[in-house]
Amino acid sequence: MDVAFYSTAESGLLNIGFFGSAANLIAAPVNGFEIFGPQAYSGPEATPTILPGLYAETMNSVAVAGTLYGQATGSVTISAAAPPATPAPPSFILALFGLAALGIFVAVTRRRAQA
Predict the structure, then answer these.
(1) Tens digit of pLDDT for each residue in 98-114?
(2) Can you give the pLDDT at residue 48?
(3) DSSP state string for 13-81
(4) CA distances from residue 18 to 23, 74, 76, 100, 111 in whole angstroms, order as listed
(5) φ, ψ at 2 (rounded to 5°)
(6) Residue 5: enclosing H or E segment and its boundaries?
């Protein structure tokens, strides 16, 4: 899946491409969505900050095998992702086992070097 956000000067909002279809302004995605509306980011285009909120569509379409099908306009909600959770205990335990194995390897290597 490829998602591209656009400035107001480029009709705003976003395109979504599926199955290797690029979401770009030059051409509609072969398979995906074109959703036009207000700009949904701030900052420079090289490092944009996506702005959560409710955005009214001005136009949208669904692309299927290169054919665009216009759809009734509605709205798009962009919500902030939850912060990453603390690693699960099994991951933490696996890391401890890895460190223990490394410690044993170093100890055995030192003993062999001294012998």
Answers:
(1) 999 999 999 998 888 88
(2) 86
(3) SEEEE-TT----SSS--SSEEEEE-S--EES-TTS-EE--EEEE-SEEEEEETTEEEE----EEEE-PP
(4) 8, 21, 18, 44, 57
(5) -125, 125
(6) strand 2-5
